[in-house]
Automatic annotation (TrEMBL):
Gene3D superfamilies: 3.60.21.10, Purple acid phosphatase-like, N-terminal. The keyword Hydrolase applies. InterPro entries: Calcineurin-like_PHP (IPR004843), Metallo-depent_PP-like (IPR029052), MPP_PAP (IPR041792), PAPs_C (IPR025733), PAPs_N (IPR015914), Purple_acid_Pase-like_N (IPR008963). It comes from Dreissena polymorpha (Zebra mussel). This is Purple acid phosphatase. Residues 1-19 form the signal peptide. Residues 38-130 form the Purple acid phosphatase N-terminal domain.
Length: 571
């Protein structure tokens, strides 16, 4: 009877322990489902079209990787993800964790299925298709800027992106409006803008590479672009994206695509202007050498160089910082298209330079074609146009362009097609064909008559404004001069270290000089000898070195300190 009771108690105890362990495991699993569930999934090209970056977010710290393969039941390849902590401005808000995994050596023209996993918590499989290899195909882009979290365009933009014809989405600045902010009221009250926006674009960005350029609303109070730099990963730069290289380029078929920052001209620290200028110069020089295989150069930047909106934005000023910093470079290196946003409207410009129209058509243009498409859905509404039309403005639309986007298809080495499309109803608001049979740097040598006079006048004004805003380009050198090498050392080292080393060197040199002076003084001091041991009126006599030319002895009278020559006959 006693033994049976003991056995029953042991069975109950073991059952209770097993149940407790099971409950604990169930709790851990449920906690992982909450803390490690991947969300905000999006993709972007790596350093080439055979690489794809997959990114996502979780509330907790989790061991993460991406499974991928050629089918939803054939995801046998695995890549581990790196992690960054995303902190918010509000100290009471818990941080989130951003993951980045690089899929490389992908086959061109192939559909891949992938699935982010954090602590083995996954969502349903997602997919993307890699572009064809080489330059001889026709890429197509979905393009817009200035898209807020309250925009009614998002659902229809997602439908458009899912048609399967786009090789990339190009979002030219202003993501959700202040990724670092919390929503003060309404549907999303208290939530972080960045989290809301990244969830909203997931349907688009998890299937089509989401390529970006930073806008003014990515500038945080500390001017570090932290949310933008951590949430996105772009080609040929680091991750998180550093402010020192927030620009990049990538070749997509026959297109050399450049994303630059118009925001460097408005930061307190002006060093980034020169850093971008040096990078752009090198990149454009290399792109021009490669034009036989990649003829089109297309640049993306948020703030326009010119606009005809009824406001006081930089693009309305004759001393526009963006124009002063970029127009000459884009003209010199023959950039074909400059696509911009910021103004909540749509505008297409004639090919022009220094505000002077060079032709009212797009056949073999002699200057960059500038387009402004910042009307995807801003929380600030529309930016109206001036009553008078600028001569360089070929087409413009404000109210009717609100909630619209652009499509760009580059057919081949000589022809591309651009159109602006209404989100609601799908009406084509504007369209152009561009033909360029001679890609390469543009030249001012062909300017004649009134064109030349006006351009020369504006060049003189620009020279004054460059001085005024301290934007003049520093003289280029080979980098081999002593000054260049010293400058590189100074730029690449901590200034405190330089000062410390310099001070130590100064002390060493000072001590060395003191030692040398003292040694030399010791050698110049002459020794004296007593005439003999008797008292001769306290007179002492100097030694004479054998190599002295003057062999006369002299005496020193220590009583009066005077020297007197001694007759040699006394020796």
């Amino acid at each position: 009877m006693g033994m049976r009771l003991v056995l029953c108690m042991l069975i109950q105890l073991s059952t209770r322990i097993m149940c407790q362990n099971t409950d604990k495991n169930n709790i851990d699993v449920e906690l992982d489902k909450v803390q490690c569930k991947p969300e905000q999934v999006h993709i972007a090209y790596g350093n080439s079209l055979t690489e794809m970056v997959v990114m996502w977010t979780t509330p907790g710290q989790c061991e993460s990787q991406v499974w991928y393969g050629s089918g939803p039941w054939d995801m046998t390849e695995k890549v581990h993800a790196t992690k960054e902590t995303l902190s918010y401005l509000e100290p009471t808000k818990a941080p989130k964790y951003i993951y980045r995994a690089l899929l490389n050596n992908l086959e061109p023209g192939k559909t891949y299925y992938y699935m982010p996993a954090s602590n083995d918590v996954t969502n349903e499989p997602l997919y993307f298709k890699t572009p064809p290899a080489g330059p001889s195909w026709s890429p197509e882009f979905l393009i817009y800027g200035d898209l807020g979290i309250h925009s009614k365009s998002l659902a229809l933009l997602a439908q458009e992106a899912m048609h399967g014809k786009y090789d990339a989405v190009l979002h030219i600045g202003d993501f959700g409006y202040n990724l670092y902010d919390s929503v003060p009221d309404g549907q999303y009250m208290g939530e972080n803008v960045g989290d809301i926006f990244m969830r909203q674009i997931e349907e688009i960005a998890s299937h089509v590479p989401y390529m970006t350029a930073p806008g003014n609303h990515e500038i945080e109070p500390s001017e570090d672009f932290k949310q933008y730099g951590v949430r996105f990963s772009m080609p040929n730069t680091d991750w998180p994206i550093p402010l020192t290289k927030i620009w990049y380029s990538l070749e997509i078929g026959p297109v050399h695509l450049i994303s630059y920052s118009s925001e460097v001209f408005f930061l307190q620290d002006k060093r980034y202007i020169e850093a971008q200028r040096q990078w752009l110069t090198a990149d454009l020089e290399a792109a021009n050498k490669n034009r036989p295989s990649t003829p089109w150069i297309i640049a993306l930047g948020h703030r326009p160089m010119y606009c005809s909106n009824n406001n006081s934005d930089d693009c309305r000023k004759n001393d526009s910082l963006v124009r002063l910093g970029l127009e000459d470079m884009f003209f010199k290196y023959g950039v074909d298209l400059v696509i911009q946003a910021h103004e909540h409207s749509y505008e297409r410009l004639w090919p022009m330079y220094k505000g002077v129209v060079l032709a009212e058509n797009y056949t073999n243009p002699r200057a960059p074609i500038q387009l402004i498409t910042g009307s995807a859905g801003s929380k600030h509404g529309v930016d109206t146009m001036m009553a008078l039309n600028e001569t360089w403005s070929a087409f413009r639309m404000d109210d009717k362009a609100l909630n619209s986007y652009a499509r760009l298809k580059v057919y081949n080495a000589t022809t591309l097609y651009w159109e602006q499309v209404a989100v609601f109803g799908g009406a084509v608001l504007d369209s152009i064909w561009v033909t360029q049979e001679s890609h390469g740097p543009f030249s001012s040598s062909a300017f004649q008559g009134e064109q030349k006079v006006k351009i020369d006048e504006q060049i003189k004004v620009d020279e004054q404004n460059l001085e005024k805003h301290n934007l003049r380009q520093k003289p280029e050198t080979t980098g081999d001069t002593f000054k260049d090498k010293v400058s590189k050392v100074i730029q690449g080292a901590d200034i405190k270290v330089i000062i410390g080393v310099s001070f130590a060197v100064f002390i060493l040199v000072f001590l060395l000089v003191v030692c040398i002076v003292r040694a030399c003084s010791g050698r110049r001091t002459k020794s004296y000898r007593r005439w003999d041991s008797l008292d001769y009126g306290k007179k002492f006599y100097s030694n004479v070195k054998t190599d002295d030319t003057n062999v006369d002895d002299f005496e020193v009278d220590v009583t009066d300190g005077r020297s007197k020559l001694i007759d040699s006959s006394r020796d």
